[in-house]
Amino acid sequence: MKYIAYGSNMVEEQMAYRCPGGKLIGMGTLSNHRLEFYRHATVEPDTACAEGVPVAVWEINDTDERRLDVYEGYPHYYDKEEATVRMADGSEIKGMVYIMCDRYKQESPVDEYYADICKAYKKLGLGSEISTVLEPALMRCRAR
Asked: ∠ CA 105-107-110 to the nearest 5 degrees?
């Protein structure tokens, strides 16, 4: 199964611990979505968001999916949806993405959590996306 990661699960060290059977397929973009922060990150549809959200796409097995379900609090904290990612080479891949349940979209993220996602972006060569994706998401969160 393909798993679409947009937060700390983008980094191989995190996924090696959470999903030992997972293999990184590559980087892509979840078009027509924006990143949002509450207590944790989520993605939300937004047709006006042309740049989309940078993501990592993983191949995971059933055991890894069950481990991720526990880690992500599925089905109570996050739900699962199918989404299409435009990969760096222009191809498209469909996969599963975790989407935060509406009832938990109330709290602000802790600074350490945000910093971990910034580190993930830097490690993956997405430094310029910090100012175009992460910082705007944090500002929207603080303005709520």
From this structure: 125
**Domain spans of the chain?**
2-143
Amino acid at 70: V
Convert the pLDDT of each residue in 77-116 to its tens digit. Answer: 999 999 999 999 999 999 999 999 999 888 777 788 899 9
Are 38 and 7 in contact, with CB atoms under 8 Å apart?
A: no
Own/partner pairs, 133-141, CB within 8 angstroms, 24+ separation: 133/34, 133/35, 133/51, 133/53, 133/54, 134/35, 136/34, 137/34, 137/35, 137/36, 137/37, 137/41, 138/37, 138/109, 138/114, 140/36, 140/37, 141/36, 141/37, 141/38, 141/108, 141/109
pTM: 0.93
The fold adopted by the segment(s) 2-143 is Hypothetical upf0131 protein ytfp (3.10.490)
